[in-house]
Amino acid sequence: MTAGWMARLGYAGRGAIYLMVGGSAGLATVDPRHEPGGVTGSLRLFQHGWLGTAALILLAAGLACFAGWLTIHAVYRRDHPGRTHVVLVAGMLGDAAIYIGFMGSVLALAFGAHAGEDELQAWIGWLIGGGLGTLLLGAAGAVVCLCGIGLIAWGAVGDIEGPLELPSIDKKLMLPLGRYGTAGRGAAILLVGGYLILSAVQGNPHEAHELGGMLKEMRALPWGGAITGAFALAFVSSAALDLVAASFRRFNPRAP
Length: 256
Fold this sequence. Notes:
Order of helices and strands: HHHHHHHH
Distance between the termini: 21 Å
Number of domains: 1
Oligomer: single chain
Number of helices: 8
Number of strands: 0
């Protein structure tokens, strides 16, 4: 498989998952009985029957392809010399590691495991029970917050589309949609990191939330329905950009 096809499958897989996350958040906006799901929670409806298992395995394969593309791109990218190059490579390899983790969670779902917030809080409870666990959790939360801030900045001013083979008018339509989706994902990551820091400060694993739990906390706030709806639109917009990129982007490991 060429790097280009790996990237297309990866963007398609990530886009499909973000579409499910956005749909779950949108349903939670209009139906108080529905709990919004994160990357794994929004996919639990596929845990029934062989077709659902096959879909989860395909999504996991897509995430593996996306992580592979990020790794290849990080190794071959040469558009920014010096320290900027080091930061870009580190960021892309970090993203690849995150999506490998997501791939593992989706595969676990495919084979009947229960992944999500309960598992996250159990791991954090074990971590903060150790001597340096609280410091490690706080540091992890700070790193997640920095990643969220970086993604917000990238959504605001970065080249989020890449070399899309689309008519100029279509590219102009995709640009604000993609910027909103990318910055919205960054805001969600920033809030998840904030909850990790809060959990470390208070020594309480139940203060930590993954994406679905964070959306549930947001919905409980005044104007929470509007906030959840804004995040739902952001994830759907991000999914749209990924799916368009999977179809129309030119992928070159050495290009930006």
